[in-house]
Design brief:
- The complex is a heterodimer of chains A (469) and B (224).
- Helix content of chain A is 54%, strand content 10%.
- Chain A has 18 helices and 8 strands.
- In chain A, the strands form 2 sheets. Chain A has a 5-stranded antiparallel β-sheet.
- Chain B contains 10 helices and no strands.
- Chain B has helices spanning 2-5, 9-33, 37-54, 67-85, 102-108, 119-145, 149-155, 168-175, 179-204, 211-223.
- The radius of gyration of chain B is 20 Å and the shape is elongated.
- Mean pLDDT of chain B is 76; it is low at 1-6, 59-65 and 88-96.
- The chains are: A alpha+beta (469), B mainly alpha (224).
């Protein structure tokens, strides 16, 4: 076994077939560094562009776009300004994004612009802001995109605390968009709440795809001590991106997704030694794993595909559907056990109840049929009383028994059992033993719980039933 | 990518030379999958014969795929076809096979599945190494032609940049140059190396703008 040597520069083990004994990793890296040397002279430093850029007023912009009605300035971002506009012919609203004019002075830019814009225009997806048109208007580079009537995630997070359910509805849509773009070979590189729009129907739309690459590097990448805006972006940037490492691929987007996810759930950014989200808000513990895995510093340990994040989130959401708690099987078994216990005494009481009802009927018949004394004689009175008692007790027993069967209305069940013990009707002989039995069963702790649960469930079903339109 | 676009003799020659450089990663890949050495050798040989004969590359879609990925995919298809047929493929059917130096390949190959990387990743790594090896060889040849072999030998370590281990002072002495001259020579060689690297990679991807990405990807795989 040949002794293995190490590279004097990076310390890695040299493979046996290392070219001329030189470390292949360092060689490859050397090939990369050149790119930066070659590029830096011609490349515009993006930070200088944005700081001086003052977006024109809508009226002033209108002369660049005679075919549009420029309505208002929506915002100025790190990569230009966005306006709301209207296409009179089609009578639809669009968003027009213009890039800072200085950018046009780089000759290589036009070529890159066209190429990138074409690639971006191919991204047709319901969760990606569509690009309708792009080009130059009197030297001003622009994109015309779909107008999203809503707010960006930054506003949403800042104004109202996003509820976990909402976050869990948003994340899968982001994943879909990312996966689609990644499949087309496009990496966003600048995923952050400002770039994630949510329209009034709650649909997520991601904007500014690929623009980071188009414009050179994202402003924050160039200098770590940039403006406040640039600093803000840093938090969402994957570690490999921040270090300026060469091997930045689609997994950087997944890291940014993790940061956004964490922020949506907890309202805070995952910095330093941060707590898992389930410790900060009431969510399923399994989501911690999803978030943490997305936030892995090493790309290889992260989720490798956005679609995997989506799958995991969706399966956790499905499993923790609180309408029918996961303990359901347990409950069912437990429930049937209790029902079993309740069955016999309930039957007994039902029988006794029926007997009582029959007896009441009998008494009434006797009263009516047997000829006798005056209406208010002693005998009649007795019969009337007996009939009434039997009737009442019979009814109570029958109702109580059916409540016992359904494990509903614990109080009524107990009442029935108590009544069953009272010697006031002919069915007493039957109802006494069953009544005692019923009381014993009803006094058991787990039986009470079962009753309580069942009533709750009934309640919820009634409520949700009324909510369904 | 000249090798793939037409079926002219020019493109065939380009393809043949590409194959000469990059057969080893494929061999490394198949060795990971097939324990029997001679079967692995046969497969590799046969694949290249078929590749050149039928000029597969012409059918590769131009806007998708690097040659590197294409080659592996084609090889995988080929392998599964062969294994289905389950018969030994004759070596190129009488044609002179491409001289593949299996002997030295086998001696330098380390087949143990190291640290859980897949066969495909291993292929990518070996591709990267083969590529770099080719470049360094070219560079060496160039230096030799202009009588600068000694220069190459001493300064090649600096292609990757400055690092502890050598100093320009020492090297300058050996080469009878001033330190400044040595530094300049090293930087010139570095630049030439980069040019050659990017040229070579440009041959295997579909546009000069994809070169950077390919370098990054390869660097990535080497990091595994």
């Amino acid at each position: 076994m040949a002794e293995t040597k190490a590279c004097p520069k990076c310390g890695a083990e040299l493979p046996d077939n290392a070219p001329s004994g030189i470390c292949p990793k360092c060689l490859m890296q050397a090939g990369l560094e050149s790119e930066q040397d070659v590029g830096s002279a011609a490349e515009m430093n993006p930070t200088t562009l944005w700081s001086g850029f003052v977006p024109p007023e809508p009226e002033d912009l209108a002369k660049f776009f005679p075919q549009l009605e420029i309505l208002e300035l929506l915002g100025k971002g790190g990569m230009g300004a966005v306006y709301k506009a209207r296409q009179p012919g089609l009578d639809r609203l669009v968003a027009v994004k213009i890039l800072p004019p200085e950018i046009g002075s780089d000759p290589a830019f036009t070529e890159r612009f066209t190429r990138e814009a074409r690639a971006l225009a191919k991204l047709t997806h319901q969760n990606i802001v569509s690009i309708f048109d792009f080009g130059q208007a009197d030297g001003l580079y622009y994109f015309m995109m779909e107008y999203v009537d809503g707010a960006n995630l930054r506003h949403v997070i800042e104004t109202g605390a996003i509820k976990p359910e909402e976050a869990l509805a948003i994340v899968p849509q982001i994943c879909e968009a990312l996966q689609f773009a990644h499949d087309e070979g496009i990496v966003h590189r600048d995923i952050k709440p400002e770039n994630i729009l949510v329209d009034k129907q709650g649909r997520v739309k991601i904007a500014d795809f690929g623009l980071a690459k188009l414009l050179g590097k994202a402003p924050a990448e160039v200098t770590l001590t940039g403006t406040h805006q640039a600093m803000g972006t840093l938090h969402y940037m994957a570690p490999e991106q921040m270090q300026g490492a060469a091997a930045v691929d689609h997994r950087a987007d997944i890291y940014s997704l993790g940061v956004v996810f964490y922020e949506m759930l907890t309202g805070e950014l995952p910095m330093g030694r941060f707590e898992p989200p389930s410790k900060k808000v009431q969510i399923d513990v399994r989501l911690d794993e999803v978030v943490l895995r997305s936030l892995e510093s090493t790309p290889d340990r992260r989720y490798q595909h956005a679609s995997d994040v989506k799958t995991d989130v969706e399966s956790i959401v499905a499993a923790s559907d609180t309408r029918f708690p996961a303990a359901q099987p347990e409950t069912a078994e437990f429930e049937s056990l209790v029902r079993g216990r309740m069955k016999v005494p309930a039957i007994g009481l039902r029988v006794a109840g029926i007997v009582n009802l029959l007896a009441a009927l009998l008494f009434v018949l006797i009263m009516v049929l047997v000829p006798g004394s005056e209406v208010f004689s002693m005998r009649t009175m007795i019969f009337v009383v007996l009939a009434l008692l039997s009737l009442v007790q019979g009814i109570i027993l029958v109702i109580g028994a059916s409540r016992m069967f359904d494990l509903q209305s614990y109080r009524i069940a107990v009442l029935a059992a108590v009544v069953a013990i009272l010697p006031c009707a002919p069915g007493f002989l039957i109802s006494l033993p069953f009544g005692i039995w019923a009381l014993i069963v009803l006094s058991m702790g787990n039986v009470q719980t079962a009753f309580a649960r069942e009533s709750e469930r009934e309640q919820m079903m009634k409520e949700s039933g009324s909510a369904v339109v | 990518m000249s090798a793939g676009h037409t079926s002219s003799p020019d493109s065939r020659r380009a393809l043949a030379s590409l194959c000469e450089t990059y057969w080893y990663p494929l061999y490394a890949y198949v060795r990971r999958r097939v324990p029997d050495v001679s079967e692995a050798q046969d497969m590799t040989q046969a694949f290249f014969a078929e590749l050149l004969e039928k000029n597969y590359v012409g059918s590769a879609t131009p806007d998708r795929g690097r040659f590197r990925a294409f080659l592996l995919t084609a090889f995988k298809h080929f392998l599964s076809k062969q294994w289905e047929k389950a018969k030994a493929q004759k070596r190129g059917g009488g044609r002179a096979p491409i001289p593949l130096d299996f002997e030295s390949a086998d001696s330098s190959i380390r087949i143990e599945p190291a640290s859980g990387i897949t066969a495909e990743q291993f292929y990518d790594q070996q591709w990267a190494i083969a590529l770099l090896g080719q470049i360094i060889k070219q560079l060496e040849a160039e230096c030799e032609q202009s009588g600068k072999s000694k220069l190459f030998e001493e300064l090649k370590g600096f292609i990757i940049g400055d690092h502890i281990g050598t100093s320009y002072g020492q090297v300058a002495e050996k080469l009878n140059l001033t330190e400044a001259a040595a530094k300049k020579a090293a930087s010139r060689m570095r630049r030439r190396y980069r040019e050659l690297l990017r040229e070579e990679i440009a041959q295997t991807v579909e546009g000069p703008d994809k070169v950077g990405d390919e370098i990054r990807n390869l660097f990535n795989t080497l990091e595994l």
